[in-house]
Amino acid sequence: MDERGMNQAEVLKQLSEKLKRDLTYTSGLILGSMCTKPHPFAKEVFQKHLEKNLGDPGLFQGTVEVEREAICMLASLMSKPDAPGFIVSGGSEANILALWSARDKLNKRQVVASASCHASIDKAAALLGLKLVKAPVTEEGEVDVDAVRRLINDDTAAIVSIAGTTDLGVIDPIPELSELALSYDIHLHVDAAFGGLVIPFLKELGYKVPDFDFKLQGVASITVDPHKMGMVPIPAGGILFRDEESLKPLSFNLPYLSGGPALQYTITGTRPGASAIAVWALFKHLGREGYRKVVARCMELTEIIAIEVERIPKARLVRKPVMNVVGITFDGVKVEAVAEKLRRRGWAISTVRGFIRIVVMPHVKLRHITRFMRDLKEILREEV
Question: Which of 26, 190, 265, 370 is the most buried (most CB within 10 A)?
Answer without folding.
Answer: 190
